[in-house]
Predict the 3D structure of the following.
Amino acid sequence: MRLIATDLDGTLLRSGGVLSDRTADALRLARRSGATVVVVTARPPRFADPYAGLVDLAVCGNGAVVYDPTARQIVASHALDVPTARKTADALRAALPGIGCAVETGHRVFLEPAFTWRCANDTEACCPEPIQVELGSFEEVLDRAELITKILAHHPTMDVDAMLATAREALGDRVEVTHSGGAGLLEICAAGVTKASTLARMCAERGFLASDVVAFGDAPNDLSVLRWAGTSYAMGNAHPDVLAAVARRTLTNNEDGVAVVLEGLFA
């Protein structure tokens, strides 16, 4: 295998966002063996910074951004435009009463008051301003967002799978809607932007084929990559839809399931 594509939360990382020594060693082993390692995550670029030196690139925001964690630089972006973001938020409020919306820019998150979900570990010591910024309205959010990598939509009580089905029916093909397992939290990117679409474009630019790729994932937003890659593994802790779609299994994230496979491939 020439390229490793792995999700972060629930896949590469143990519970609590911990990268085990065994998994870090397995990533080093793969790179020493000549493989390119790419994180493919719903997380924004700032969450890839700790893995500089262990990974080559990061596909972030469910495909909205390609990021170089060593240079701390966005290499490419596939953003939502403001009119589409506004129409999407309006349609979501009509279909899912009680939701709140936020916009992720890749560097910061701008929230309307109804968006009550918070990411407890979304901080950056070198940033002089807060990462998560609450504004007075969604229009203010749109005014402040210099780049809309994705919309976040949260409902405090609804089941996220039910939310996803309703949102996809309401929004059609104007955007891409998915979730990564967060309670009541949907993630919306521009139409045609998925983890797989961006990874495939990045691979084509660098001379990799789908058959060169081994992929790992656990959540519905990983399905596009797991279906595209030549070899794919569902984590033992994966969402039922992932387990149903992917034939190969590895151990859970807390059992270092990614490392187990990489050790077998590159030892």
